[in-house]
Amino acid sequence: EVQLVESGGALVQPGGSLRLSCTTSGFIFKDFHMAWLRQAPGKEFEWVSGINRAGDVTTYADSVKGRFTISRDNDKNTLYLIMDSLKPEDSAMYYCAKGGRFGPRGPGTQVTVSS
Questions:
Q1: What SS3 state is found at 31?
Q2: Fewest CB atoms less than 10 Å from the CB: which of 50, 82, 86, 113?
Q3: What is the pLDDT of residue 60?
Q4: pLDDT tens-place string over residues 86-113
Q5: Has residue 49 got a pLDDT over 90?
Q6: What is the dihedral of CA 90, 76, 71, 22, to 10 degrees?
Q7: For residue 99, what is the DSSP state?
Q8: What is the distance between the alpha carbons of residues 43 and 8, in angstroms, rounded to a whole number?
Q9: How much is the pLDDT for 100?
């Protein structure tokens, strides 16, 4: 059974930083591209970032480019998202997805950016 579990979300002040993690099981992690998505209340899912299988090619939405960093540890079957210079508009539920933006997702972790 494919399982993805996000963690690391929190309430943080504008300008702050967070590191999200996504632990996975039930599939060969290193064989799949991975992605982070987010959904704010009342809005559609937004693709945030993607990473290839080896972890050496990364892509970002314009809204987070230069502030977020995606990475992966194929030995630990874990995906990461480091978020710096957080803004209130980054507040959302964050999800990791197997195989890209349309793949199965975890239950999500809440990120709230507010003073």
A1: helix
A2: 82
A3: 98
A4: 999 999 999 999 998 899 999 999 999 9
A5: yes
A6: -20
A7: T
A8: 22
A9: 85
Look at the alpha carbons of 30, 4, 1, 59 in this order and tell me if their dihedral is positive or negative. Answer: negative
DSSP for 69-96 reads EEEEETTTTEEEEEE-S--GGG-EEEEE
Q: Nearest 10 degrees: CA dihedral of 106, 92, 109, 62?
A: 70
Q: What residue ranges in the chain does DSSP mark as E strands?
A: 3-7, 11-12, 18-25, 34-39, 46-51, 58-60, 68-73, 78-83, 92-98, 109-113
Under 8 Å between Cβ of 49 and 81:
yes
Backbone phi, then psi, for 19, in 5-degree steps?
-120, 120
Helices (H), ranges, the chain: none
